[in-house]
Write a structure and sequence with these properties.
Zincin-like; 2 domains; alpha/beta; 10 strands; 3-stranded mixed sheet; elongated
């Protein structure tokens, strides 16, 4: 594939060769192969095997301008050698991904290609539909349309919950579906994720703000907010010990 740049139409492999030589000027240039893959996310991977550098890039970036291809090449090659990419290069790449048209395309592709596997919302101990509706009446006047709900397939003690706008689903870690988990913390985590529906992520330039000032202010209106945070902390400390 060729990309239009200041040098004319340049093969994508040539961009990676040029960047590689800039990063490792004394190293032997490996042979380079670049593939665009049908990923569900704008993921990119790079590996170096016996003098052959293989790069796999999401086809979402296939039509990105040369400046973005070069920025991504620099990010990947720097990471290959465990170096920190330049903040300005990262900002340029993130600014492109934060463009409205690119974000819309990302959502569409994720819906088409991505699969969201979750467990039934009615768990062993807690029913997420009941939790959602109780909070909906208490904090949102019952006006929030219920998205798809489910428990996570894997037990995670770091990601307690998340809202996926591409699939319009709230997922809570199944670590919380336990008789040892106080109802207060299950409600608190669900409330936090419900706020993501009301206060979506904001994008400005290369910045991405997940928890806006309005989001943080609304979260503090959760009844027994400090107690819920402390209870969650203690529960997770206990679950870590049990897992160990």
């Amino acid at each position: 594939m060729r990309v239009e740049s200041g040098l004319g139409f340049e093969p994508i492999e040539q961009i990676y060769a040029r960047v590689y030589q800039a990063v490792k000027p004394r190293a032997t240039l490996p042979t380079i192969t670049v593939h665009f893959r049908e990923y569900a996310n704008p993921n990119s991977r790079i590996r170096l095997e016996e003098g052959h550098m293989i790069v796999d890039i999401s086809d979402l970036l296939k039509n990105a301008p040369a400046s973005i291809q070069e920025a991504l090449a620099l990010i990947l090659i720097e990471k290959l050698f465990r170096r920190r990419p330049s903040p300005s290069v990262l900002a340029l790449y993130r600014r492109y991904l934060n463009r409205v048209d690119i974000r819309q395309q990302m959502y569409r592709i994720k819906q088409e290609r991505g699969r969201k596997t979750v467990l039934d919302p009615k768990g062993r101990v807690y029913d997420l539909c009941e939790v959602f509706e109780e909070l909906n009446l208490k904090y949102f006047y019952g006006l929030m349309a219920r998205p798809r709900l489910g428990w996570s397939v894997r037990k995670s003690r770091t990601i307690l919950g998340h809202y996926d706008p591409s699939h319009h689903v709230i997922v809570l870690t199944n670590v919380l579906d336990s008789p040892d988990a106080p109802e207060l913390i299950v409600q608190y985590v669900m409330f936090h994720e419900m706020l993501h529906l009301k206060y979506p992520t904001q994008h400005k330039g290369h910045h991405r703000c997940v928890h806006t000032p309005d989001f943080k202010a609304a979260e503090k209106r959760f009844e027994r907010f400090p107690e819920a945070q402390q209870a969650l902390k203690l529960f997770l400390q206990g679950s870590w010990k049990q897992a160990g």
